[in-house]
Amino acid sequence: MKRLTLTIVIPLTIISFSAITKWWYALPTDAPDTMFTGFPLAFVCEGWHTSLSLQVFMTEFLMDLLIYFLFWFVLFFCIDRFLTKIKTNKIVTTSLWTFAGLIVVFWTLTASNKDNLFYIKRPFEMKVIKTGYKLVWQDIERPDYYK
Question: Does residue 106 lie in a domain region?
């Protein structure tokens, strides 16, 4: 299972973590209405202090990443153990790691913005108004709270 974890589970975790997510339209305490992102916990939102900045909540981020990892690990463990032995092709492994590496580089560059704020835990409460799921290439229009 160690081989499968390194060759398939970790890259699929990174790819699915960045491709499939949930958006949350919420009203934080003493802040403007904000779009949050993350599944199953909201771990990132736009920064309020300057444009193009982010607020990242590390506890929620790590919990989300762990949940994605456990999903892929259990899925491949059950397939490998109970259905059929999984043999990984070198081309598939290389492709997955290349794509996952590009995603990590992109998000590292995004996170390196000096205006981003990183918190251990979200420092405010929020009232969720509306939620939905999206893929990374979909653009979600911000709901109009005042309607």
Answer: yes
> Per the structure, how many domains does the chain have?
1
List the beta bridge partners of residue 35. 25
Q: Where in the sequence is the domain holding 90, given as residue range(s)?
A: 2-120
Q: Is 61 a member of any domain?
A: yes
Which residue type occupies 32?
A: P
Residue 110: both structure tokens together: 């995004």
pTM of structure: 0.85
In a domain, 25, yes or no: yes
| Tens digit of each residue's pLDDT (9 = 90 or more) over 46-81 | 888 888 889 999 999 999 999 999 999 999 888 888
Q: What is the pLDDT of residues 7-21, one digit of tens each?
A: 788 999 999 999 988
